[in-house]
Design a protein that fits this description.
The chain has 342 residues and is an alpha/beta fold. Helices cover 46% and strands 20% of the residues. The radius of gyration is 20 Å and the shape is globular.
Length: 342
């Protein structure tokens, strides 16, 4: 499926469930340089035999200045210029780095994404936010920079490790909590194995998530209001990810549960719905228990991009499918988290 969406006046072309070699016709006469996750390259090296490429080590640690400098050094070796197209092939780490490098190299060059993980297909590659970490702060340095295209070849999912498949469902369940109860209930009817075996099911799942995110991004590209809803589960999730060194999707799932606990107190969210969400996370083999230290809160909040002088804009739920943005004073947030147990 091929279609185009416009964000902040810029078109983004989508190629959904299209073969990788479609890039040749997308790029036309442009020089292509691939930025590839090293693990993806190990499994699919034959796809890149005829093209220049730069390998990016797998993992969150690669989202740093040293990686950016190394990529720019190699772009210069390849004589990359403003007519060059760089294409990020990998998961969320690669899309973050690719979009950031494309924004700053020669003040901006064209780029595209080929997301290869479930998490990047449903979330990380969508929406034009990209950047790198700075010290202990996640995504502190970055830009809003939209790709020219996003190409999803589901064949990459065939070689995706099961743990990475599980990881993607942290973000998918986030969308289920935000969008509507029908999507939430539909997830209960299936398992990870169902989606691994049925291309039609995975296609419907991915397209629902992409459509949900695109609508929010179109309404609020620079994240001043409605796009903040996409951070549901992420404020505490990022702190858990950093402190416990667990994958992003797992951390988001745990952050969702904490957000549900806070919603019970502040929004009269039904405890029965918290239990439903917990059961759904367990159904998709995601963790539902962890100890969150109050010592992390100051660090978490101080540099959070949703913080204000009054507190932090936190995403809560009135019910499943009805999110709410509420500014919570820091001292109150500490008390609420301290009183919450998963």
């Amino acid at each position: 499926m091929q279609y185009c969406e416009s964000f902040d006046g810029k078109p983004v072309n989508y190629f959904i469930n299209e073969p990788f070699h479609t890039i040749t016709s997308i790029a036309k006469e442009q020089q292509i340089i691939y930025l590839i996750d090293a693990c993806v390259f190990e499994k699919h090296a034959s796809l890149f035999e005829a093209s220049p490429y730069i390998l990016i080590p797998s993992g969150e640690a690669s989202k740093c200045w040293a990686t950016v400098e190394n990529i720019i050094d190699q772009l210069l070796v390849f004589n990359a210029n403003r007519q060059t197209l760089i294409v990020g092939v990998g998961g969320g780490v690669v899309s973050d780095i690719t979009g950031f490098v494309a924004a700053i190299y020669m003040r901006g060059i064209a780029f595209g994404f080929v997301p290869t993980t479930l998490l990047s297909m449903v979330d990380a590659a969508i929406g034009g936010k990209n950047g790198i970490n700075f010290g202990e702060q996640k995504n502190l340095i970055g830009t809003f920079n939209l790709p020219s295209f996003i190409l999803m070849d589901y064949a990459f999912l065939n070689s995706l490790p099961i743990d990475e498949f599980k990881n993607g469902f942290g973000e998918i369940i986030k969308y289920a909590c935000l969008s509507d109860i029908r999507f939430f209930d539909m997830l209960f009817m299936h398992t990870i194995e169902d989606y691994q075996k049925d291309i039609h099911k995975i296609d419907a799942l991915i397209q629902h998530c992409v459509s949900t995110k695109n609508k929010m991004v179109m309404a609020d590209f620079k994240e001043s209001h409605v796009r903040k809803l996409l951070n549901f589960g992420h404020t505490i999730g990022h702190a858990i990810e950093k402190a416990h060194h667990i994958p992003h999707g797992q951390a988001v799932g745990l952050g969702i549960l904490y957000a549900c606990k806070l919603s019970e107190t502040l929004r009269k969210f039904e405890p029965a719905n918290t239990l439903k969400i917990k059961n759904l996370l367990q159904q998709y083999q995601l963790p539902t228990q962890i100890t969150f230290s109050n010592d992390l809160i100051d660090s978490m909040v101080k540099h959070d991009k949703k913080s204000t002088d009054k507190g932090i804009d936190f995403i809560l739920l009135d019910t499943i499918g009805k999110p709410h943005i509420q500014n919570i004073p820091i001292d109150q947030l500490k008390e609420l988290i301290a009183a919450s147990t998963l």
